[in-house]
Amino acid sequence: MIKKLTCLVCPRGCTLTIDEALNVSGNFCPRGIPYALQELKAPKRTLTYLVKVKGHSQPLPVRSDAPIDKALIFEAVAILNTLELTPPIDFNTIVVENILGSGVNIIATRKIECNEDSYLRKHV
Q: Is 48-123 a domain of CATH 1.10.3720.10?
């Protein structure tokens, strides 16, 4: 069984080949070897998404603070779709801690202030 994949660690995009003995070839840098072996055993991805914010028309961009198992991505997105956050939210605030028991947190990638004008228009 020989497997080929494209390395995503750096912009070079090396075509990696993994043979039956788990020898990796085709990598330009040494970072391709652990990437290839990880992809075979349990592929992971960084999750980026947008979450609703009360009183704001613009959603909040969020991301995982570490790569999450690829098999959990759709389930994690379903959870993020149900959220509506209340400002203020600071940069790097944990939005969801330990999502799906993965040990990975979802964090804010932008600061959101209270939008007092829109709050007053809706609640006064």
A: no
